[in-house]
């Protein structure tokens, strides 16, 4: 119990977040929307870590991990956005299925 | 409160005592800072200054890594409160990663695409160096936090490297695909790790709480968490089902980076996978681990599917880099055979195989880079008749391809032989039929790989070039490295015990 909210509720929310993110990654055509989906998935993981970390009073490993994950997610998205910007300059589109210079 | 003082004191002592074991990584970090400063102030005056610092710095680091063999004798040393662990095998992996980093830097010095990019090459060398630091930590990681950090460290820098050629459509496309696939894989891995943390209450995968926590919950929930975490690791070693990014990224990225990505992250990923599998299966109880049978079967199935997909898709390729990408997927399957065998001999077989694979693969990509410097093409069509014009390089290419196929008298044969025998040995002991099926598939795949590897010598020697064009002379530095690697491949094929004898832990 965390402030009266049972643990299951947090886990259900994070599972929904993760599935929504994965759905967005698989179904969206725009690279930016895919990135948003990825962010949702990462946030699901972070939420889990923070919630489980509340039970780990001595070492607080979960909270520390969550901090690192937030920073790394920001770094990853910054790099991905820069690359997508470059792709837009070359191809005039950000839809991955229209970016196909290489043939199978 | 008294309690805390003791804990703080001991952890400070632990941290201070650990620094000495991190000498290679610390010096890499210092060289990185030095490179940035040098690039800012003196790069205009002295040509190639950053590259020279990078190469010499990495050379010093290799010497320091060699020195670590004297530092640790037999038992592994946990450092920084169990965050990382330095063992003899991890020093070997680090050595292999740094050597391939050095070769790739020498390779990049003379690559025409990289020399002609508008950005210049100075950031490029610092990024390769940073990836090397990340890979070093990946090899030693013992904690879920450290695993996630190092994997992301490597991934984020690799995205930039793959997309380094601004203005080149293929490079940008490969960078975007790599970044999107990689970010999804690491997000999935993070979710899996958060579940593992919830189930076990610890991030330290070597502690007994980790195994006991996983074994006490239902197998279904434990496998979901483990599979999600493994997905991120499978992405790094390009194993099924996370192998879809490989062909596009390898084809589009600059050739030196393709060579680097096909070797170094795979080496570190395999080392990390072995650490993880060992941790999941380490238990003090007499009945053995509850996960042993299922991980063995999972790895065997993944190995079978990975090598079959890789080798059969390679048959239809007409671009040499794309062909090598599929061959890299096939090789991941072969290495996973060794991981599935999961034994002491298996681990040594994997290390030997990785050494041999790194030599032959970097060598083959160097030849591709050499040829693309000369006639600016990576299509198989354009290789026609080149064997007569560049005899020495073409012979070296044949040696690398024979080694990758796994035929005597090259090192590839010995490497594959060790992997196969480790798998058969594991079958004899454990009696898991999937391991036997895996070995059979391995043999079939070796035969299949012969067909596509030999398309390259076929074009080099037996087909005539359509048009006579005057060609520039190749690069001397490339020729020297290529011939050295080819000779070393042959040497290890004839005297494998020279290297195998050194690997004792």
What does this structure look like?
- The complex is a heterodimer of chains A (about 100) and B (about 500).
- By secondary structure, chain A is an all-alpha fold.
- Chain A has one domain (about 5-90): Helix Hairpins (Orthogonal Bundle).
- Chain A is built from 3 helices and no strands.
- Chain A has helices spanning about 5-25, 30-55, 60-90.
- The longest helix of chain A has about 30 residues, at about 60-90.
- With about 500 residues, chain B is an all-alpha fold.
- Chain B has 22 helices and 2 strands.
- Chain B has helices spanning about 1-20, 25-40, 50-70, 90-110, 110-115, 120-140, 145-160, 170-200, 210-215, 220-235, 245-250, 255-280, 290-315, 320-340, 345-375, 385-390, 390-405, 410-430, 435-455, 455-460, 475-495, 495-500; strands at about 75-80, 85.
- In chain B, strands 1-2 form a two-stranded antiparallel sheet.
- The longest helix of chain B is centred in the middle third of the chain and has 32 residues, at about 170-200.
- Chain B starts with a helix and ends in a 5-residue tail after the last helix.
- The chains are: A mainly alpha (about 100), B mainly alpha (about 500).
- Chains A and B meet through α1, α2 and α3 of A and α7, α8 and α11 of B.
- Chain A: Its EC number is 7.1.1.-.
């Amino acid at each position: 119990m965390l402030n009266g909210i049972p643990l299951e509720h947090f886990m259900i929310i994070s599972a929904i977040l993760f599935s929504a993110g994965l759905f967005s990654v698989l179904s969206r055509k725009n690279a930016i929307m895919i990135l948003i989906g990825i962010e949702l998935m990462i946030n699901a993981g972070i939420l889990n870590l923070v919630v489980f970390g509340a039970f780990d009073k001595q070492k607080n490993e979960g909270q520390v991990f969550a901090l690192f994950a937030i920073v790394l997610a920001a770094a990853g998205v910054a790099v991905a956005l820069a690359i997508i910007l470059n792709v837009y300059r070359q191809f005039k589109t950000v839809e991955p299925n229209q970016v196909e210079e290489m043939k199978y | 409160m008294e309690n805390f003082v003791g804990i703080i004191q001991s952890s400070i002592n632990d941290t201070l005592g650990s620094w000495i074991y991190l000498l290679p990584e610390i010096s890499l970090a210092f060289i990185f800072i030095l490179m940035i400063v040098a690039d800012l102030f003196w790069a205009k005056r002295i040509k190639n200054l950053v590259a020279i610092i990078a190469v010499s710095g990495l050379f010093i680091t290799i010497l320091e890594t060699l020195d670590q063999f004297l530092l640790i004798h037999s038992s592994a040393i946990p450092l920084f409160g169990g965050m990382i662990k330095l063992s003899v095998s991890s020093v070997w992996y680090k050595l292999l990663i740094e050597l391939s980093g050095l070769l790739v830097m020498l390779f990049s010095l003379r690559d025409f695409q990289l020399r002609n990019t508008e950005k210049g090459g100075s950031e490029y060398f610092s990024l390769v160096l940073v990836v090397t630091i990340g890979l070093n930590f990946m090899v030693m990681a013992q904690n879920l936090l450290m695993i996630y950090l190092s994997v992301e460290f490597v991934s984020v820098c690799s995205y930039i490297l793959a997309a380094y050629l601004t203005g080149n459509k293929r490079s940008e496309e490969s960078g975007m695909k790599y970044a999107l696939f990689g970010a999804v894989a690491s997000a999935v891995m993070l979710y899996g790790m958060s579940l593992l943390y919830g189930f076990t209450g610890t991030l330290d995968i070597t502690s007994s709480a980790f195994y006991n926590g996983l074994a006490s919950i239902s197998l279904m929930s434990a496998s979901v968490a483990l599979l999600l975490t493994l997905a991120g690791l499978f992405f790094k070693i390009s194993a099924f089902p996370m192998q879809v990014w490989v062909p596009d990224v390898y084809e589009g990225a600059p050739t030196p980076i393709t060579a680097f990505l096909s070797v170094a992250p795979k080496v570190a990923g395999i080392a990390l996978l072995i650490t993880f599998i060992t941790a999941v299966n380490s238990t003090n109880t007499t009945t053995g681990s509850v996960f042993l049978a299922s991980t063995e079967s999972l790895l065997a199935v993944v190995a079978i599917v990975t090598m079959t997909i890789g080798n059969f898709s390679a048959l239809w390729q007409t671009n040499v880099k794309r062909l090598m990408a599929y061959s890299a997927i096939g090789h991941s399957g072969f290495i996973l055979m060794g991981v599935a065998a999961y034994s002491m001999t298996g681990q040594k077989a994997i290390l030997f195989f990785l050494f041999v694979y790194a030599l032959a693969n970097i060598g083959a990509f160097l030849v591709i880079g050499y040829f693309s410097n000369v006639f600016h093409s990576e299509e198989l069509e354009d290789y026609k008749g080149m064997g007569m014009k560049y005899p020495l390089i073409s012979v070296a290419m044949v040696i690398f391809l024979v080694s990758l196929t796994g035929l005597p008298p090259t090192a590839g044969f010995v490497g594959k032989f060790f992997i196969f025998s480790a798998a058969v040995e594991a079958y004899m002991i454990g009696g898991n039929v999937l391991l036997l099926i895996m070995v059979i598939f391995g043999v079939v795949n070796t035969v299949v790989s012969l067909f596509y590897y030999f398309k390259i010598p076929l074009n080099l020697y037996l087909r005539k070039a359509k048009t006579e064009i005057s060609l520039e002379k190749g690069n001397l530095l490339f020729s020297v490295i290529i011939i050295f690697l080819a000779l070393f491949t042959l040497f290890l094929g004839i005297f494998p015990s020279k290297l195998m004898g050194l690997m004792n832990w």
